[in-house]
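#struct-help
A.M.: can someone run this one for me? Single chain, 159 residues.
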Amino acid sequence: MLNIKTELNLAYEDLGDNSLILNGTISFFGYASFLSEVENGDTVLCRLHIGDVVSINIEDGENFAIIRAIFCHQKNDLRFAFIIVDWFEELNQDVLGCPVYRLIRGPKNDWRRVFSINLVNAVNVAHFVHGCRDEGCDGDEHDSRNNLYIRNLYFFKAV
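D.P.: on it. Structure tokens below:
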């Protein structure tokens, strides 16, 4: 179960702010745009939407999550942007050479879920495809009880 106040305190600690959250206003959004500096020093405009798959820069390797909410929190007359995510867990299986993941949702998700938007790696976008089965999925309508996804390693953008 998500404890927003506890998770928000951890997200502020990531930013080097260990002060207590006494109150504050939270505003939710459907998308966010921000400038980010990439490895070569260039600045790029990043856009995040609810439902996007992102990698999050935390210490234990490449971690993928799906954005469930984007919000701003006001603290001490400043506004900070955060996301709430559900995590993908790799299952050590593959389909046609692509790794299979399980999306961990709801009360089963005891992993940390609130992060500052600046920890999101929005430039290195990973592409996941819902692991549709014969029953339950119809076109763009996917069976929400099926939590299997395949990371598409062979995605090419049209030029």
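A.M.: thanks! The chain has one domain: 4-151.
D.P.: also worth noting: The two ends are 43 Å apart (CA to CA).
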